[in-house]
Here is the input.
Amino acid sequence: MTSTPCYALSDWGTSRFRLWIVDNEGRVLAEKRSDDGLDTSRSRGFALTLEGHLAGLGAPAGLPVIICGMAGSRQGWIEANYVPVPADLSAILSGAVKIQGIDRDVRIIPGLAQSGTSPNVMRGEETQLLGAILDRNLSNGIIAMPGTHSKWVELEHGRAKSFSTYLTGELYALLASQSILRHSIGDAAASASPDHPQFTAALELMLSGERMLGELFGIRAAMLLDNLQPEGAASRLSGLLIGAEVAAAKVKLSGKVTLVASDAMAALYGKALRVAGLEFDLVDADEAVRKGLFVAACGIWPARGPSA
Amino acid sequence: MTSTPCYALSDWGTSRFRLWIVDNEGRVLAEKRSDDGLDTSRSRGFALTLEGHLAGLGAPAGLPVIICGMAGSRQGWIEANYVPVPADLSAILSGAVKIQGIDRDVRIIPGLAQSGTSPNVMRGEETQLLGAILDRNLSNGIIAMPGTHSKWVELEHGRAKSFSTYLTGELYALLASQSILRHSIGDAAASASPDHPQFTAALELMLSGERMLGELFGIRAAMLLDNLQPEGAASRLSGLLIGAEVAAAKVKLSGKVTLVASDAMAALYGKALRVAGLEFDLVDADEAVRKGLFVAACGIWPARGPSA
Here is the structure.
């Protein structure tokens, strides 16, 4: 490292672990990605897992660590309670929980919860949200964060007013690998393409108000009757699910959309938003979560931050 | 057996096998249910599996056998081609395929296929359909056959005009046992109840036009925030999926509905149709498939049938 390590930032989820060491401007000095999600980390010990990765990146002993994600759930390291919406995002920062009984200063960021007739929770995405809002200086509009459990947040006067969750990514994985559609998709689950005509046709069908549940089996039938190929089948399934998500969100929400996504997800959702006629800005998901973690760290340990 | 065996009837699906021996009026003389679906039967041999069950029921050597279901698919015993819709149901009977190279006369009933912009196939349900139509002397209307892959058929002038498939049952099983919702439902997947307020509320939500994809995660959130219990979670998931199916079918189809279902499915779908304001008659699914098989057998081997 040529610059001085200031904070360690971690996005610690159910199935993956990411760690960055940054300087006092948030520049990445070192980075680690691993499969040490909750299950493996719980059996080995969270502190031991974290220290192992920190040591691998040459982190100094006193370096403080800020964590977001499912590590803060009941099944994680320590439960960081949910902050209720409508929420000032500063409440996310002040709600961070300090891990007791270890030498290092480690804090876990709380999630957001929505009570009432549409109960909802998020954990990890609140930090992405914070990063996206600060990156684009947003105070109103919609923030879409696609993924296993896609989150759509309504922002009003700089506060997270309400949010919805779509099971899109999880449903895609289950249907492609475990349902009758696995015979049509095979190993092509990762080959869904925004440029495939099946993706576009499926998007348009869902945006016209059709229900996804009655269209899924058509992928199987099209393979049997019309020789639909695996990449086409994957693209159609992706179009049906993402189309259903965007169609539902479009009805519920209005305002400029900020899409927080990377790589293939950015391409698929970008196409879906365009076909839906929704204007949007793109923020890289990795950068957003890192920025959110960095801002949280600066708030918790200001003496080490940009002004230091 | 007190009466003379006339035919053996079999519904042979992907995961289960059912066999009835009936007399010349279609009365059941003996019955067998087993888990000998396609996979186990393929490795042991279809003929051997069938003969084993026939022997177990004391069937005579010359008894002819009629079969419907996935045993007639490419992954089954022999492929019985699809009959295209619009289809006279007599075409189902005349399309039955004879198994070659065995001593017994065994025939497999073909499925139905729908080409064009809404490709679709069914295999097994065409026999249930035939039974329901004959049982109620139907020539027009809607026949709903809920299940792993629910089928809704539009009947016009006694012909199967078109049909849709909803992945409701398969999606329920996947979500209840493999998704994040498994933590909320646990062992209660079979406990969805038509009388649970969560079932009714979910039905009403779906019938109001809401999208199911954005409501699934709410079951998880309601467990975390409102202590939703497993039976309530199962009932809610069932209501969301069945509600989405009925809402979609209601938009596409009109006419009197004949619901072909048994036991728990009959109760859940019956409630859903009532909440949707759809009039319906109930036909027992087991009786319908047996009646369809019997009528097919009488058409193929008339000399043994009712007039014999």
